[in-house]
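Good morning C.,

I know you're traveling, so I'll keep this short. The sequence:
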Amino acid sequence: MERLTVDEFKQADKLPLIVVLDDVRSMHNVGSVFRTGDAFRIEAVYLCGITSTPPMAEIHKTALGAEDSVTWKYFDTALEAVETLKAEGYEVYSVEQAHGSTMLQNFTPINNKKYAVVLGNEVKGVHQEVIDASDGCLEIPQFGTKHSMNVSVTGGIIIWHFAKNIIL
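The tokens, ready to paste straight into the viewer:
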């Protein structure tokens, strides 16, 4: 199947995308984001606040080892992570339903730009101060009775959107 080893993954070109998890409480969601991040070779996952960090059996259960291949870093708050990313030249978007948000299908990432996306807590979403510090909000259109999706599903949709629009 021509899969990369962890060492080869670490050396390979990455999708210029960092996923920031803002107080995500489910370790299964965290593991799933790692696994999707590995599949699309993202730069890193930033774990913030109450978000658990590897090594944890519950993260490994869904990550299946992707927590070893995908670079990760911990920050006390997502705001600290966003401020660091912006200082490093990243364009940062919170994934949230907010006034003035951009529908995902209307957003096209540009090659040779660095991006970060913030995924929020399963109940409370992205902290308001993080939204305020972001360059904008991306919103996934929804047509049913619910107004939210699971964090790992949202992460998969968002990561795929960036991957299909940016060539490695």
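Safe travels,
E.
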